[in-house]
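Course exercise 7: structure representation. Students receive a sequence record and must write out the corresponding structure in token form. The form below is the worked example handed out in class, using 3-beta hydroxysteroid dehydrogenase (280 residues). Read each field label carefully; the graders check that inputs and outputs are placed in the correct fields and that the protein name is recorded exactly as given.

STUDENT ID: A-19
EXERCISE PROTEIN: 3-beta hydroxysteroid dehydrogenase
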Amino acid sequence: MKLKKIVLTGAAGRLGSYLREPLSQMCEALVSTDITDDLGKLYANETYVQADLASYDAIFPVLEGAEMVVHFGAIVDEKPFEELLGPNFVGSYNIWEAGYQQGVRRIVYASSIHAVGMHKKADFIGIDAPHRPDTFYGLAKCFTEDLGSMYWDKRGLESVHLRILSAAQVNNARALGSWLSYDDLIQLVTRAVDTPSVGFSIIYGVSKNDRAPVDNAKASFLGYRPKDNAEQFAEAVLAETPAPDLTDPGEMLQGGPFAKVDLGQSGIAQMKIVNDKKTV
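STUDENT ANSWER:
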């Protein structure tokens, strides 16, 4: 049975571009939102609303009648705290509070490995690992996970927090463990939406990689069963990769480059992310 209305935030982003079509197939009406002026061509049952996450007055009417919100909107890099405060901290509060006031049943949130980025990869952490943010960006993910937990405990608003490791092309050694393919991303979000009851849940967003550094066993009830494996890229990637520096936190810790940059300094700038955004 299709949902009546889903709201997707961050629809103009790279990951949002891959979620729009499958989400549109799960509901009668998909409302996509972002801060860009124009989203371009829309799917048959999709509408676009320009809205700033940092403005409660802008977000509140967008959520009217929504059963679920897939919240991927944010600044997706480390920045000075003041720049992240509006979209990443206040924006999350606005989504949860407006969602509660509008009767939303569930929020599916793009959290991140950077909420636990200072844990060692060798520790093979599970979903119950304590928060150890590697940046202000990671701190915003911790805040929103705790926000979701509180709104479930106090107000009965369900949420699933997807700790995405790296959803981008595999062109570096870290990604051999951290890769989340776009097909697996879609499956992950779909399971977060269609699982009958989730309460407050955390799950790692990672594909079925031989070298995955995290354990999703305690989130198996969500039904996420990834199919892709980054090992297919290993030979080519490792041939271009120098021997690792075992004293480098970017090599040893879950957060990778984000674990080694100074607070407020870009982590994305240390990576080779290809913008292979999907077009309608």
